[in-house]
């Protein structure tokens, strides 16, 4: 591997020797003569060899090439020393005998080349070296052959490694079988792999799992038991599972259970269930810290990371933090210990905390969810489309007063501090930039989002300019317009076109928002609102109650709602996601 530098040095030395032949021959003559005259003869100067300009450049290039090869060889040697072999042995991988080497950061194997009939190895054949990074391995098992019903023992066949493989945005598990029937040999390798896995301190060892059996098509329990639980067991993760029986069950359990024995909390369900578990985690943190939630307070971070296994209809929160709606991918992020801090909003009224959440919609979004909740007896997909179509048929605006505090630019803040020291009079100009701004009028929909809100119907996100942890919210206000123009705006979410390039759509990047409705919603005499006044929907029973869509969960508020964003208040299992692929998935109902 490192013969190239030595070979180059040999060639260069041979060239150098040809240039010094004349000097060596001149030195064979004694500088002092023993002539009878006793006089010293003058030292003869060796004849100088003339070098042309092209030859001089060739000499410099040869010297530079030698130096570069020497540096490359030293670098390779340094990398090789850093990747010093820990273990080395022979295993059969995919029916091929391989030379397997365990290094500090990866497992490398090379097929063993057969010898030729003359006894030598096949020359000129390149060795196909393969490897897997140790940080991608999450489980190791001894592979044995057992009879039916046999629980222990069996004939040892080798070692099986399970590692995480990324294909696009999906994460999957893949097995590598190292076949060797030697008990002692496999035991040594098995212990080393176990020690390596135990060294990953960021990976969870114990999880509290909540499963909502009624989410979407009631598939959450099946998804967890068939796809997720086996992976957790394979990774030696202990789980304590609770199947929720009613709405608010997970919230009540999180207030009471001992969280110190767990490394994370997992929820299997849709957006509404994810919001409930996140709310429970954050509320528990405020209780433990002694925060008064009936006042304007600064919340503390959630004590444990939250993992979301998507099993709902849209799964906006899961898609935003994982980039894809895929239960196995979500499980692999949890197993591998991938963490992402996420901003969270607080929703309060009259200085009383109503809810923690990642996003909210008022107006069209709130009414659609309220109508869908009233028809829970319908299948989820039909219920959602029915609610959208009927709300569009009875489309009407809400008169609101909207106040917001624009996001402070860090660069402007630094300039403000510097200039205020030099000139006090300039501070008044910068203070005006921090004042609240206010707009009012008739609005069809108002969205406040602290995350991009990716989903299949909005692959670019409902708020594509928002990031997970930049401490800001996107305020999107859709003013009153015709039904046809509003539908065009909705359809833009599923296409590549900008959904905000309409004169009736206003967008702002904010830190705080106050929304104060000016007209009652339930006092309208339309067919839609008459249905909401029935006994079956007590959530809309008050004339002054307004429906809010908080992460797919219905919330009521009868007066002004104050929304604040809190940077990195909770940690989710996942990664920072960029914009989704340019796919055009449209909602069939519009």
UniProtKB/TrEMBL annotation:
Domain DAGKc: 202-351
Residue stretches of biased makeup (Polar residues): 10-36
PANTHER family: CERAMIDE KINASE-LIKE PROTEIN, SPHINGOSINE KINASE
Span list, region Disordered: 1-53, 411-430
InterPro entries in the record: ATP-NAD_kinase_N, CERK_C, CERK_PH, Diacylglycerol_kinase_cat_dom, Lipid_Phosphate_FormReg, NAD/diacylglycerol_kinase_sf
Pfam families named among the record's database cross-references: CERK_C, DAGK_cat, PH_CERK
Entry protein name: Ceramide kinase-like protein
């Amino acid at each position: 591997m490192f013969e190239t530098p030595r070979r180059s040095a040999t060639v260069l030395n041979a060239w150098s020797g040809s240039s010094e032949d004349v000097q060596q021959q001149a030195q064979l003559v004694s500088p002092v003569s023993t002539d009878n005259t006793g006089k010293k003869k003058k030292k003869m100067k060796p004849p100088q060899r003339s070098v042309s300009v092209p030859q001089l450049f060739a000499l410099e290039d040869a010297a530079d090439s030698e130096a570069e090869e020497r540096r490359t060889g030293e670098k390779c040697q340094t990398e090789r020393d850093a990747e010093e072999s820990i273990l080395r042995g022979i295993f059969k991988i995919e029916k091929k005998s391989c030379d397997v080497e365990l290094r500090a950061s990866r497992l490398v194997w090379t097929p063993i080349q057969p010898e030729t009939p003359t006894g030598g190895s096949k020359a000129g054949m390149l060795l196909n070296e393969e490897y897997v990074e140790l940080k991608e391995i999450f489980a190791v098992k001894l592979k044995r052959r057992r009879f039916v019903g046999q629980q222990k023992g069996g004939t040892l066949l080798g070692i099986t490694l399970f590692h995480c493989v990324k294909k696009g945005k999906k994460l999957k598990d893949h097995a590598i079988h190292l076949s060797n029937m030697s008990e002692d040999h496999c035991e040594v390798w098995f212990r080393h792999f176990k020690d390596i896995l135990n060294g990953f301190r960021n990976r969870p060892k114990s999880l509290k799992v909540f499963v909502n059996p009624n989410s979407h098509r009631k598939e959450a329990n099946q998804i967890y038991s068939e796809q997720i639980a086996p992976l957790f067991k394979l990774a030696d993760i202990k789980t304590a599972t609770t199947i929720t029986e009613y709405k608010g069950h997970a919230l009540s359990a999180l207030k009471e259970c001992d969280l110190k024995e767990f490394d994370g909390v997992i929820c299997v369900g849709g957006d509404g269930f994810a919001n409930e578990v996140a709310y429970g985690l954050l509320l528990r943190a405020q209780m433990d810290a002694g925060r008064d939630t009936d006042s304007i307070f600064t919340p503390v971070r959630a004590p444990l990371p939250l993992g979301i296994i998507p099993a709902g209809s849209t799964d906006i929160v899961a898609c935003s933090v994982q980039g894809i709606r895929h239960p196995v991918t979500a499980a692999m992020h949890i197993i591998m210990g991938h963490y992402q801090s996420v901003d969270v909003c607080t929703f309060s009224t009259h200085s009383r905390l109503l809810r923690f959440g990642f996003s909210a919609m008022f107006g069209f979004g709130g009414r659609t969810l309220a109508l869908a909740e009233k028809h829970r007896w319908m299948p989820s997909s039909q219920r959602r489309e029915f609610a959208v179509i009927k709300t569009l048929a009875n489309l009407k605006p809400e008169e609101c007063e909207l106040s917001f505090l624009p996001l402070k630019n860090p660069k402007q803040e630094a300039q403000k501090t510097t200039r205020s020291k030099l000139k006090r009079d300039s501070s008044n100009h910068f203070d005006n930039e921090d004042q609240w701004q206010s707009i009012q009028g008739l609005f069809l929909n108002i969205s406040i989002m602290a995350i991009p809100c990716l989903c299949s119907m909005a692959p670019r996100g409902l708020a594509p300019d928002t990031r997970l942890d930049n401490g800001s919210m996107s305020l999107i206000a859709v003013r009153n317009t015709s039904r046809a123009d509003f539908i065009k705006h909705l359809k833009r979410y599923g296409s590549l076109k900008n959904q905000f390039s309409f004169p009736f759509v206003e967008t702002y990047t904010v830190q705080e928002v106050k929304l104060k409705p000016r007209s009652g919603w339930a006092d309208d005499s339309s067919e839609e609102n008459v249905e909401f006044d029935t006994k079956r929907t007590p959530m809309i029973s008050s004339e002054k109650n307004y429906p809010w869509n908080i992460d797919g969960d219905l919330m009521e508020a009868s007066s002004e709602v104050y929304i604040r964003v809190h940077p990195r208040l909770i940690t989710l299992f996942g990664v920072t996601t960029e914009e989704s692929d340019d796919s055009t998935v449209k909602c069939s109902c519009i």
